[in-house]
Amino acid sequence: MDFCRRDRKATECSLRSAAAKLFARKGYENTRTLEIAKEAGANEALISRYFGGKEGLLMAVLNDEESSPALLEVKGLDGNHPNLREAIRSYFEYGRLRVLEHEEFMKIAMSRALLQPELADEIREKVIDRQMKTVMESLQVYLSKYKLKDGDLEAYAMLLTAMSHTFNFLVRRIHRVEDVKVDRVFDLLTDSLISNLEGHRP
Fold first, then answer.
1. Does 50 share its domain with 122?
2. Residue 79 and which of 1, 6, 31, 102 are 20 to 30 A apart at CA?
3. Radius of gyration of the chain (CA)
4. Domain total of the chain
């Protein structure tokens, strides 16, 4: 009985992995379940049995336990840097590495979110909102010495989160803009943010 469970789990994992690769490369609509099964080395009928069909397999990919927790991680803004400038640089660099590791997942999630508003809401609640909360908590360590207005901390967290996603994923990976140009944008953003904060010293 244990062997069967392990075998099913391994097959489900293979199907999720194959689906993620094909959805990201060909798009959800253009990927057939037969292709997924072939890529996974599994019987096509198992997609319906285990996931209820292609839509269920898509949701399983988006809810993959290996991808979701990693997407929630926030490194760089952890209080271990000598100043805010270094912390922000570290945060953007970690964002670049995280996109490289989870690019397939992010392509699938973003493309489907554009077509399914309810899925966009789920992604926001599961990933973006939770990541924002973590960024806010981390930023608080560095911004506590500034006299901020109500809502400023959230605004700074949203700015950093959005810029990291936009430039590390959309600009670097989708539009293929050179790293040196993106890094320059991050430097300018960091300088502007810190300059703005200096105006809020008590």
1. no
2. 102
3. 20
4. 2
Residue 194 sits in a domain whose CATH number is 1.10.357
54-60: long-range contacts at Cβ-Cβ below 8 A with a sequence spacing of 24 or more? Answer: 54/28, 57/15, 57/16, 57/19, 57/33, 58/19, 58/23, 58/28, 58/108, 58/112, 60/12, 60/16, 60/19
Written in H, E and C, the secondary structure of 148-191 is CCCCHHHHHHHHHHHHHHHHHHHHHHHCCCCHHHHHHHHHHHHH
Let me know whether 41 and 117 are in one domain. Answer: no
User: Are 100 and 191 in a shared domain?
Assistant: yes
Contact 85, 77 (CB under 8 A): no
Digit-coded pLDDT (tens) for 56-110: 998 888 777 565 555 556 677 777 788 899 999 999 999 998 888 888 878 888 8
